[in-house]
Design a protein that fits this description.
By secondary structure, the chain is mainly α. The protein contains four helices and no strands.
Length: 103
């Protein structure tokens, strides 16, 4: 019987390289915080950052409108009439809605 030995390259016999490769594979694919979940979390963070910016601009617009409304009684009266359908005691209010075609 002849024994054949398989020659394994030296870098594959290095225990530090094997340990590092196993650790890397573990972190990338098998761990709870793997690459896929990190990409998903980052995309959610980006989406929330965009929403945060949107809401900040909306808050700024609303504050500007509030400042304008509180600066003038005429503007406040106009806003109340248009948005909340308020009226004076001696007035009649007619609400006209445009017809929508649902054909």
């Amino acid at each position: 019987m002849s024994k054949r030995s398989i020659k394994v390259p030296a870098y594959l016999r290095n225990k530090f390289l094997i340990a590092t490769a196993a650790f890397t594979i573990w972190l990338m694919f098998l761990d709870r915080n793997n690459l896929l979940s990190q990409f998903q979390l980052q995309s959610e963070v980006n989406k929330l950052e965009n929403q945060k910016e949107f809401f900040r601009t909306e808050i700024d617009k609303t504050r500007e409108e509030q400042r304008e409304l509180l600066s003038s009684p005429e503007k406040l009266e106009k806003f109340a009439r248009e948005q909340y359908l308020m009226k004076k005691d001696n007035e009649d209010l007619f609400i006209i809605k445009e017809a929508t075609s649902d054909k």
